Every structure is written in structure tokens, then in C-alpha cells.
């Protein structure tokens, strides 16, 4: 047997696999930049396209900086100070606001913000959690893309200078993260998010990992950011240790194209045939804080599991489902995953968290999903039409035995940090 360490919580989880029956798919390990902060500063001073950040800002202007929320491993403690240092001497700290691009997630607490940004940032500039449900925080920006009604954070909309900061990795229905997603859905109103994530867009064949052009979700996200204006964009690409490998800055769309090309090489791997069993994770803390986020790990596995196969997903879920939002309620609202899909297809209007439920239900309607968590009871998972195992190694061995002679397994130790895809046949829309 061979021991494989899964990314799980903050400590990891070791499992035993039969190497003769198992393919382990991991990112190609790239060393961190020798000086991560210097790499970020270089991206600010030597952009992919357009002038450096300092050349785009004038004294007396107001600045809004968009950053990922606490469910994302963005190195905010490096990126935001680097941006602030570039702005030093041009604009006053009192004229700078860092906006936590929560989308529809909960806001982060004071201690969480300090852990995310560092005490130097918390004490230096104002940090505000975006709230998609607070009408007083939102400004109407018109219809953009394919008829999307666009409400954006008012502080962002009113700022003279708008800077996005994020990181780029494959995304399970938007293609890639980072770039324009730091505007919408990150700083968008609930109505905007619901339309961007409606059943028609989410169910499109190109709304998947690694596809940004021809993907109706990303096409509209990109259109919104382009129409409403971003002054400067900064993204990084991370390795499996969450360290900065490379950084990209400049005009939003050109910068994001360069960053996605780098992320694709780092995080997407071809396989020749689907597997009977796939073991996956949600990349450990902070990404596996709840079941809602763990759908990404399930989706990564779903790319290469046989119809009717088994997905075993290890996610700590210290934050439960979570309890905020409607995800848990929507999951429990129908007797089966197929019934959920049917109900969603009949709805004329998207409800919050429906998109995650829709993807999860589609996975569960064609695969058997078994969870391993540390904070959800079997009865809790049963309401989401999921089973639980307390021993991933045993569950894997049992699933292979049930599949019969010749059964094969795949393990994704880093979950959606590495996206497998079937190399034959090539996938439609497949910018891979």
C-alpha cells in the first residue's frame, strides 16, 4: 500500500491506497518566488499591459481596493501592503477603502480581518465587508452583458481609482477565479449575483473548469467589469503551499489572460479514461471550511468519474453547511438530487445558493458521493442526500471491491487545486 496525504483542514489527512489500482493527480510543484513580495511589487511597477499603478493615480483621488474574503487563500497580507506602499505619497490613507469581496458569503469578523490582512493593514486603512443584501451599500450601474441588471458596491462605484486584487485558479463554473470576479460577483448586489448564477448559465456546457471564452458566466462577469471600469488589476498564481509563484498586474483583461495561462499550466492535468472511484478534497483550510465550498472538490472529481461511479470527498467543514444563507434549506427541500434538479429547472427566478445546489445535485444524480468531515453529523449530511464515512481508506477499498475486477481509482489530494480532464475525446469549448 502507498500512503497519500490529503489536504484537509490545517493538518492534512493520510490515507492508504493500492498503487496498482490508483492514479494520483497533483499539481506540478512550482517553487515559490524567491521573494514573493518583490514579485508582487514588480507586477505593480512592470504591468502586463498599460502603465504602472503609480502612474494611474493622482493626488486627492479616492481609492477602493477589492480583495477576496476569508474562504479564499489569497495572500492579502502581502498584496494589500504592496498596493498601499505604491500609493504612499500620492493619496492619503483616509481616502483608501479595502472592500472584502464577499459576494453572497457572510462578512468577516474583526479577528478574521486581522488574520487575513495583518494588523498593519487593519490599522492603516478602512476595511469594509461588502454586503450584497444591503441596498444602502449598492449603486445601480445599468444592464450589461447578456441583460444582467448590475448593482455594485457604492463605495467601489464612487471611487476615483478601483483596484482589484485576487488569485487565479480554475473555477468550477466561471472557468477561472480572479480578475473580473473581484468586481462581480465579489462586489455585486444579490439580484446581480442571482442572474449571473441562474440555471440557464450554470447548466451551459461551457460553464466549467478552465473555460472563460464562450462561458456565459464568465462572459457576463467580464462584460460587467469592463463596462463599469477597473483602474488596475493585480492577481497572483499560488502553488499547493499557497505561496506566490508568479504575479501579474495591469489592465484587467490582458492581465487576467496572462494569469489564467499560467494557472492552467500549473493546475490542470489530462487523464486518458474515467475512473470508478475518485477521492477528492477541497484543498484544506480555508477552502474546506464548509460543505457549500466543498462542492468544488466534488466537481473536480466529477470531471473524471464514470457515470454511476463513487466520489469520496474529504472536507473538514468546521463552519458546517454553513448555517447562514439558504444552501442547507434548498438542499433539504426535495426528496432526491434529481427532484432538486427538476425543481430548479421549473423555477423562473434563481434563489440564493441555488447555483451551488444545482451543481451538487447534478453530480449526485449521476454519482454516489460519500463525505468525510470532522464537524457534520451523519444525520446532517443525510438531509443533503449524502453519506459519511469515518475512514476514507476503507471507503475507497470497499468502493473498488464493489466496482469489480479491473476497477480503477483516482486521488486528487489537493482537490480543485488540480483539475483533471479527459484528454480523449477533447471537450467542447475546451481552452485547456
Automatic annotation (TrEMBL):
Residues annotated as domain Lactate racemase C-terminal: 274-415
Domain of life: Bacteria
A GO MF label: lactate racemase activity
SUPFAM superfamilies for the chain: S-adenosyl-L-methionine-dependent methyltransferases
One Pfam family matching this protein: Lar_N
Residue stretches making up the LarA-like N-terminal domain: 8-209
InterPro entries, A to Z: LarA-like, LarA-like_C, LarA-like_N, LarA_C, Ni_dep_LarA, SAM-dependent_MTases_sf
Protein's name in the database: Nickel-dependent lactate racemase
Lineage: Bacteria, Bacillati, Actinomycetota, Actinomycetes, Kitasatosporales
Amino acid at each position: 500500500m502507498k500512503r497519500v496525504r490529503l489536504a484537509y483542514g490545517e493538518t492534512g489527512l493520510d490515507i492508504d491506497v493500492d498503487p496498482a489500482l490508483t492514479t494520483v493527480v497533483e499539481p506540478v510543484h512550482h517553487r515559490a518566488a524567491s521573494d514573493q513580495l518583490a514579485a508582487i511589487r514588480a507586477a505593480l511597477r512592470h504591468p502586463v499591459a498599460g502603465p504602472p499603478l503609480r502612474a494611474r493615480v493622482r493626488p486627492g483621488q479616492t481609492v477602493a481596493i477589492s480583495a477576496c474574503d476569508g474562504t479564499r487563500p489569497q495572500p492579502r497580507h502581502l498584496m494589500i501592503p504592496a498596493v498601499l506602499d505604491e500609493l504612499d505619497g500620492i493619496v492619503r490613507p483616509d481616502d483608501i477603502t479595502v472592500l472584502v469581496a464577499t459576494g453572497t458569503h457572510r462578512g468577516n469578523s474583526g479577528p478574521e480581518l486581522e488574520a487575513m490582512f495583518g494588523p498593519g493593514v487593519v490599522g492603516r486603512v478602512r476595511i469594509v465587508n461588502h454586503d450584497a443584501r444591503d441596498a444602502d451599500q449598492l449603486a445601480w450601474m445599468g444592464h450589461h452583458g447578456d441583460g444582467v441588471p448590475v448593482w455594485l458596491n457604492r463605495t467601489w462605484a464612487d471611487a476615483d481609482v478601483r483596484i482589484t486584487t485576487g488569485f487565479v485558479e480554475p473555477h468550477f463554473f466561471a472557468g477561472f477565479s480572479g480578475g473580473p470576479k473581484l468586481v462581480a460577483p465579489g462586489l455585486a448586489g444579490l439580484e446581480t449575483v442571482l442572474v449571473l448564477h441562474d440555471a440557464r448559465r450554470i447548466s451551459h456546457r461551457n460553464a466549467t473548469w478552465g473555460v472563460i471564452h464562450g462561458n456565459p458566466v464568465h462572459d457576463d462577469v467580464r462584460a460587467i467589469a469592463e463596462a463599469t471600469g477597473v483602474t488596475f488589476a493585480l492577481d497572483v498564481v499560488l502553488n499547493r503551499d499557497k505561496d506566490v509563484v508568479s504575479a501579474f498586474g495591469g489592465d484587467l483583461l490582458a492581465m487576467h489572460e496572462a494569469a489564467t495561462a499560467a494557472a492552467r499550466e500549473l493546475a490542470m492535468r489530462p487523464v486518458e479514461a474515467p475512473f470508478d472511484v475518485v477521492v477528492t478534497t477541497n484543498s484544506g483550510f480555508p477552502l474546506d471550511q464548509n460543505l457549500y465550498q466543498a462542492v468544488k472538490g466534488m466537481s473536480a472529481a466529477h470531471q473524471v468519474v464514470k457515470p454511476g461511479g463513487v466520489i469520496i470527498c474529504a472536507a473538514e467543514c468546521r463552519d458546517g453547511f454553513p448555517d447562514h444563507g439558504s444552501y442547507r434549506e434548498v438542499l433539504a427541500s426535495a426528496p432526491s438530487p434529481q427532484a432538486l434538479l427538476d425543481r430548479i429547472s421549473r423555477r423562473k427566478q434563481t434563489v440564493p445558493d441555488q447555483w451551488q445546489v444545482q451543481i451538487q445535485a447534478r453530480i449526485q444524480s449521476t454519482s454516489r458521493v460519500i463525505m468525510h468531515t470532522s464537524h457534520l453529523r451523519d444525520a446532517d449530511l443525510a438531509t443533503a442526500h449524502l453519506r459519511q464515512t469515518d475512514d476514507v481508506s476503507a471507503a475507497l477499498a470497499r468502493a473498488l471491491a464493489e466496482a469489480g475486477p479491473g476497477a480503477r481509482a483516482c486521488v486528487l489530494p489537493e482537490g480543485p487545486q488540480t483539475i483533471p480532464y479527459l484528454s480523449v475525446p477533447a471537450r467542447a469549448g475546451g481552452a485547456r
